[in-house]
């Protein structure tokens, strides 16, 4: 295929992904929409909320505050790093103890395990031992092979037992630690959407930088996709309507023995099968009807690698998937289940039609 000299705006048709009610019939003299926006640091990153409604902007602002409060409440349940959260209390239990979960924690764990099964463990919420073992990103020594093997032995999503009727969870393997980072923000976005709809809001964009959720019965929302390994450099824009989008990206990483330095990836994505960070500069973006699903699948597909990701995407036509890999003089792109594309200026993009 002939190289494209400009980047592209990816317009995702989301009729199959839409989860909202059909739009109301147009009104000839409809009042203009009022606008409200705000930001709050939640779950370790800045969540930006934009609401447009026929009510006044103060009403939209109050809806945003209620949405932020709900996300903050969920953070006290789902965060693994904070020792006071409900998830942290579960992680401290021994393998023989049963833990009665709140409805929110049980729903998040249940969703995470379902996505682990769907990806055959490429996404695994039990990688807490690995995320604690590896140091923060930067030029530092990697753990030695023995420590990695030990941590890897405590990773297994199949060792998380559930009792649905009583919402009881038990971690069957000693030292197993749940880390719900891959689904927590998406789970919170899905709940935030429900909060906004309950307050009469039908048009909003909730943006966490690498994950977003769009609500609309009008024109789509625009959302940027960054150049892999360079979050400040835009590569694409995507138009989304009544759907969620998530990107999982990795930068080049060297990691093998304690004698090697490593440069961690932006998302700190680990391969549960090896206990190692996922290597290579690439990103995968997933559009789905659920933010929880989009976030976990983006991680899972990045762990799978491009060939397996292509097979997964083609077997799931309800998803839209974009895979990007930088080259010395441009960007290689693969897309599956994507609609027509329109040009834009910027990065040199070479589209691949097959693997």
From the structure above, extract its key features.
single chain, 9-stranded mixed β-sheet, T-fold, 4-stranded mixed β-sheet, 28% helix, 30% strand, 355 residues, 20 strands, alpha+beta
Report what the structure shows.
It is a single chain. This protein has a single domain, classed as T-fold. Helices cover 28% and strands 30% of the residues. The chain has eight helices and 20 strands. Helix 6 runs antiparallel to helix 7 (291-304) and helix 7 (291-304) packs across helix 8 (306-315). The chain has a nine-stranded mixed sheet with strand order 2-3-8-9-12-16-17-18-20. Strands 10-11-1-19 form a four-stranded mixed sheet, with no helix packed on it. Mean pLDDT is 84; it is low at 1-21 and 253-266.
Question: Any chance you could write out the topology, listing elements then pairs?
Answer:
Layout (H helix, E strand, L loop, with lengths): L7 E4 L22 E9 L2 E9 L3 H22 L7 H6 L7 E2 L2 H16 L9 H6 L6 E2 L3 H8 L7 E4 L4 E4 L9 H18 L4 E5 L3 E5 L5 E7 L2 E11 L2 E8 L10 E2 L7 E2 L4 E2 L4 E7 L2 H14 L1 H10 L4 E8 L2 E7 L4 E3 L5 E4 L3
Parallel strand pairs: 1-11, 18-20
Antiparallel strand pairs: 1-19, 2-3, 3-8, 4-7, 5-13, 6-7, 8-9, 9-12, 10-11, 12-16, 14-15, 16-17, 17-18
Helix pairs in contact: 1-6, 3-7, 6-7, 7-8
């Amino acid at each position: 295929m002939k190289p494209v000299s400009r980047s592209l705006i990816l317009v995702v048709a989301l009729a199959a992904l839409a989860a909202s009610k059909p739009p109301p019939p147009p009104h000839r003299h409809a009042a203009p929409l009022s606008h409200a926006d705000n930001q709050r640091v939640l779950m370790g990153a800045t969540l930006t909320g934009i609401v447009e409604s026929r009510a006044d902007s103060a009403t939209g602002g109050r809806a945003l505050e209620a949405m932020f409060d709900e996300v903050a409440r969920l953070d006290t349940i789902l965060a693994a790093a904070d020792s006071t959260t409900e998830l942290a209390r579960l992680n401290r239990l021994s393998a023989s103890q049963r833990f009665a979960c709140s409805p929110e924690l049980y729903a998040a764990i249940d969703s995470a395990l379902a996505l682990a099964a769907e990806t055959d463990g490429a996404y695994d919420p039990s990688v807490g031992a690995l995320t604690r073992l590896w140091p923060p990103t930067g030029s530092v020594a990697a753990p030695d092979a023995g420590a990695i093997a030990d941590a890897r032995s405590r990773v297994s999503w199949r060792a998380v037992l559930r009792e649905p009727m009583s919402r009881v969870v038990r971690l069957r393997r000693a030292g197993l630690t749940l880390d719900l980072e891959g689904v927590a923000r998406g789970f919170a976005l899905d709940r935030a959407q429900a909060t906004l709809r309950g307050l009469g809001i039908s048009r909003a964009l909730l943006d966490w930088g690498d994950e977003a959720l769009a609500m609309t019965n009008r024109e789509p929302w625009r959302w940027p996709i960054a150049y892999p390994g360079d979050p400040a450099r835009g590569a694409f824009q995507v138009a989304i309507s009544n759907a969620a989008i998530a990107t999982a990206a990795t930068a080049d990483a060297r990691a093998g023995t304690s004698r090697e330095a490593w440069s961690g990836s932006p998302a700190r994505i680990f391969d549960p099968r090896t206990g190692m960070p996922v290597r290579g500069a690439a990103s995968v973006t997933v559009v789905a009807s659920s933010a929880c699903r989009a976030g976990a699948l983006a991680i899972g597909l990045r762990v799978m690698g491009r060939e397996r990701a292509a097979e997964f995407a083609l077997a799931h036509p309800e998803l839209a998937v974009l895979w990007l890999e930088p080259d010395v003089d441009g960007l290689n792109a693969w897309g599956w289940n994507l609609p027509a594309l329109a040009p834009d200026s910027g990065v040199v993009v070479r589209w691949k039609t097959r693997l």
